[in-house]
Amino acid sequence: MPKKNNKKQLADSLPLVAIDLGSNSVRAMAAEKIGPDMLHVLGYEESQRYPCVDRGLIVQTSSAGYMISEILNLLANRVGVERLPAAFVLLGGASMQVVPVYSKRDLGLKRSVPTSVLESMRDECKRKIEEHNPNVAVLDLIPAYFVVDGQEQEEEPSPTQRATLIEAHFSAIVGKKELVDKVHAGFDRGGRTIEHTFTRPEALLSAFAFEDPSVLTDGCAVLDMGAQTTTLSIYKGTEYLLIKVIQKGGYHITRLIEQQGISFDNAETVKRQYGFAAPNLIDKNYTIQIPGSPEINGVWKTSSEELATLIKQGLDEMVNPLMNILNEYSERIRCLYITGGASMLQGMPEYLSEKTSVEIMYGSHAGLLDRRTPDEFCSPAYASLVGALIMGSDYRDAHPGQLLEQPKLNKIGQTFGQTLVELFTDQ
Predict the structure, then answer these.
(1) Under 8 Å between Cβ of 58 and 182
(2) Cβ contacts of residue 35 below 8 Å, gap of 6+?
(3) Which of 107, 191, 229, 376 lies at 20 to 30 Å from 401 by C-alpha?
(4) Residue 36 in contact with residue 59, Cβ under 8 Å?
């Protein structure tokens, strides 16, 4: 039996690794930083082996632990390292929303603002939310603006800035406490460490704003279309104006097609290969014929227009409530980025443009990836992982020399660890 390696390891010596516990799968990407805001993707792995993640929430911690350990072992093999002990983790899910929160401090007399005071104000805001809402966890606390002796400013007060009265205003991205607890439990079961957590909206904005940083000041929205959830985030200046999650995604559309009498896998194939977001976007109507259920004599036939009509029905249920909200902010923002696997349906930008006057474009993160990186990783489906890797690189720059320690495994975790080591030794 292999000996367990409990030695601490320097984070800076390892590749950057991000894990997305998405709607119904676990995805992981590894990269190396080759310059300021420039990554080379080393490898990618994805698994749907066990149904342990639902709408961004881990529902089976033991299975999630196995998948986390398995996918990081696969990724380690792919990138040619012995072991990947830790990862940056993306958090999201159906319970996510944004709330404003602030803290005040009277320093008594005009003096420089210590970093410790700002840290205590941040801690107070986090504590204020979580103590009043025991079932809620603060997933991220993003500075919105500061008021220093009555004067508003976007930048955090520097150690040389003198003040008497300070207000710190934050946008708190919150979610169910159960979400955070189960993510940590899943990593503990898998014998891995969470290097740091980021929220999907922040990771996506980090990826898209690189191409044009002015959109943050001018205001933008992100429509993240996942498998089981669709999330609208609206951002302007330095703060989130809104985060709204609908518990439907691309999976919902595939189910609608499946109910016509074909398997889920065939429904997914039909959606990807022949699906359009709306029937008026099709240039020429044609017949689609694939294997179906015995109830329809083993063959399923439809036209491309009928398929698009069915898809539009599902999209309307997902998107209309969010577009109604977006239109309330249309005068305050410049554009809407669309991303996620479900956004890749043919005609999606045209379909959405009929519902809003806001400019619509696919979110691009290609400028963050070097030329050696395969083109497939420039797809919007990978934007959140690339954003998390960029944020992870910034995190390491701000915390140099950080040591990672493998967590002690419980009985179940030990079994997983032993099985996986033996499996990959055999390979």
Answers:
(1) yes
(2) none
(3) 191
(4) no
What percent of the chain clears pLDDT 70, i.e. is strictly above it? Answer: 90
- Count of alpha carbons within 13 angstroms of residue 130, beta-carbon side: 19
Of the listed ranges 45-54, 112-121, 325-334, 357-366, the one predicted with least confidence: 45-54
Cα–Cα distance measured from residue 342 to residue 3, given in angstroms and rounded to the nearest whole number: 44
Tokens at 146, concatenated: 């500061």
pLDDT band (50, 70, 90) for residue 139: very high
Long-range contacts at 41-49 (CB < 8 A, ≥ 24 apart): 41/369, 41/373, 41/374, 41/377, 41/386, 42/15, 42/78, 42/79, 43/75, 43/78, 43/79, 44/75, 44/78, 44/377, 44/382, 44/385, 45/71, 45/74, 45/75, 45/78, 46/71, 47/71, 47/74, 48/24
* pLDDT one-digit tens code per residue, 274-292: 999 999 999 999 999 888 7
Q: Say if residue 414's pLDDT is above 70.
A: no
pLDDT band of 142, cuts 50, 70, 90: very high
- Beta partners for residue 90, in sequence order: 20, 198
Q: Do residues 183 and 65 make contact, with C-beta atoms less than 8 angstroms apart?
A: no
Classify 229 as helix, strand or coil: coil
Nearest to 406 by CA among 417, 390, 415, 421: 417
pLDDT of residue 341: 87
Q: Domains of the chain, with CATH numbers?
A: 9-93+181-199+369-426 (3.30.420.40), 97-177 (3.30.1490.110), 212-363 (3.30.420.40)
Rounded CA-CA distance 123/253 in Å is: 42
Higher confidence at residue 36 or residue 392? 392
CB atoms within 10 A of CB 58: 26
Mean pLDDT, the chain, whole residue set: 87
3-17: buried (b, 16+ CB within 10 Å) or exposed (e) per residue?
eeeeeebebeebbbb
38 backbone dihedrals φ, ψ, rounded to 5°: -140, 125
In this structure, the chain runs to a length of: 427
pLDDT reported for residue 114: 87
Residues 6+ apart with CB under 8 A from 109: 164
Q: Which two tokens stand for residue 314?
A: 């599902």
- Of the candidates 103, 104, 92, which has an alpha carbon nearest to the alpha carbon of residue 128? 103
Provide the 3-class DSSP secondary structure of residue 28: strand
Q: Is the pLDDT of residue 333 over 90?
A: yes
